[in-house]
Amino acid sequence: MPVAKLGKMYYLSGAPRVSTAELSTTPGPRSHILGITGSAAKMGIGVSSRIAGDTAIARKHLQGEGSDSVGSGWRGVVRDSIRVVWRWGFALWAYRCVPTTPFFVYERYGLMQSGAMLLRRRATCVIVECNGIFFKEADGDRSNLTFKRLARYWEIRSYVKSDLVIAVSEQLRGELISLHPRLERTAICVPNGVDTDHFSPRSLVRADSESWVIGWIGTILRWQGVFELIESVARVSRDSGLRICIKIIGDGPDRDRCVEVAERLLPGRVEFVGRVATENVPSLFDNVDFAYAGHLPLTDAPMYHSPLKLFEYMSMGIPTVASDSRDARSTLSVLGLDSMIFDSSSPESLDKALLAGVSFGRDSKIRSRMRRAIVDHHSWTNRLELILAKATSLIDGENVDKGNTDD
Question: Which of 89, 124, 121, 92 is nearest to 106 (CA)?
């Protein structure tokens, strides 16, 4: 693909909590950043990056489980004032460190942050990645936003002033278009991907065991659906007589409450591993029969995220019970595994999907087909090729096609 005219990739992430450190508290964004920049390097594209969350000041003062806590009144004013100062500081840092050779900007947007705002005239192309409508999420789901109008204005302006906007799901692209009509032309859908080399097939080492293990990894938050998983396993185990255990890998603000629920409903059957280095994750799934990727809908919008962990599980060849989404349909349905997709608003639907997971969990043919589908269509390199093809068409003066670019 002729991408030389775009120049070097200048990757920006201004969110202070998003870090690429090995034990990052934001493993999903970390995987996305390393996936995109790593794939660019593999394609022979030079990469320079500025990741705000990797700076000493962010690690010391602005990260951790309580760094994005709820606050109102004067506390909210102070918190959002810090966000404003951080925005301009990050933008100036990005401007001062700009590559001397031709470059294009690829920015992961963060709430009230924009490192590209001073670079639009110098870059060959500005690409902004959208993983959510952050001013809505911060105001509604997290209730930690005071400068609401300013956050809304800055976020919409960042998308509108960009040459290309990457929405990680078709639902999210629809949300973007509802914010400004120009985004009908410049916003495209490119779902999350996976590092297929790192998340390689796992050998199930406990196929003769009388119990079943379902695995989950991530940050333990209410909307991740971990509580619903524990409740469902308790119901299914009681009604079917199956012994199903859960392995939870990760940490988060809701961990203590999750432990309480597990001890009450499934005593001795839920293992909490804690946060681990990314390089150690695949080996922890060697005794996992099937995995779980459930998300609850946001309060102000349908579920518009692209479930990164779904691709990671499937890249390891692990059958996955997943909440209904376009990505779940594009992967599980094409393999004839619709029964593993559940409606997140229906406990009965999740119960049935868990039983399907038991049925398919140790099927070696299913595991092999899952791995093959991910390698062929859902790697980070595959995703970046789609993005750069669109960006190159912009440089050539062509219009950006509308709609989804996923296979």
Answer: 124
Could you give the CA distance from residue 212 to residue 282 in angstroms, rounded to a whole number? 18
Residue 249 pLDDT grade (very low, low, confident, very high; cuts 50, 70, 90): very high
Residue 187: closest CA among 170, 202, 204, 203 = 170
Model confidence pLDDT, tens digit, residues 97-119? 999 899 999 999 999 999 999 99
H/E stretch holding 323 reads strand 320-323
- DSSP for 47-88 reads EEEEEGGGSHHHHHHS-STTTT----HHHHHHHHHHHHHHHH
How far apart, in whole angstroms, are the C-alpha atoms of residue 63 and residue 101?
Answer: 33
Alpha-carbon span 325 to 303, nearest angstrom: 7
Question: Which has more pLDDT, 219 or 230?
Answer: 230
Indicate the pTM of the whole model: 0.86
Using CA atoms, how far apart are residues 277 and 82, in angstroms rounded to an integer?
A: 30
339 three-state secondary structure: helix
Q: Among residues 93, 3, 92, 34, which one has the least CA distance to residue 387?
A: 3
Domains contained in the chain, CATH given:
4-193+379-395 (3.40.50.2000), 212-375 (3.40.50.2000)
In whole angstroms, give the CA distance from residue 62 to residue 15.
10
Q: What are phi and psi of 298, to 5 degrees?
A: -70, 160
- Look up residue 181 and give its two tokens: 């009509």
